[in-house]
Amino acid sequence: xxxxxxxxxxxxxxxxxxxxxxxxxxxxxxxxxxxxxxxxxxxxxxxxxxxxxxxxxxxxxxxxxxxxxxxxxxxxxxxxxxxxxxxxxxxxxxxxxxxxxxxxxxxxxxx
Length: 111
Hints:
Layout: H1 2-10, E1 14-21, E2 28-36, H2 51-63, E3 66-69, H3 79-85, E4 89-96, E5 102-109
């Protein structure tokens, strides 16, 4: 329910919370929860997270702040995100930093 509120505030098509478990090298990323518009279904909790997305999450955690990904920013969406999930633009924000498990909020725009 919380991600539905976040999705409404930011007028995005999908909001996800991903968690990285373990040390930076070899950290395992997994989808914790997600809310998506019906026309833009997201990943299932069992879906694997690809290396390009893992790299985005690692950079968000290492450098903090908000990471914008779209053609205009020069940091384009990885091919898998564009093709598999229809993502045209995204924001990634590190919410929790190591030594605890890393946590990143991801907002997708697909329209």
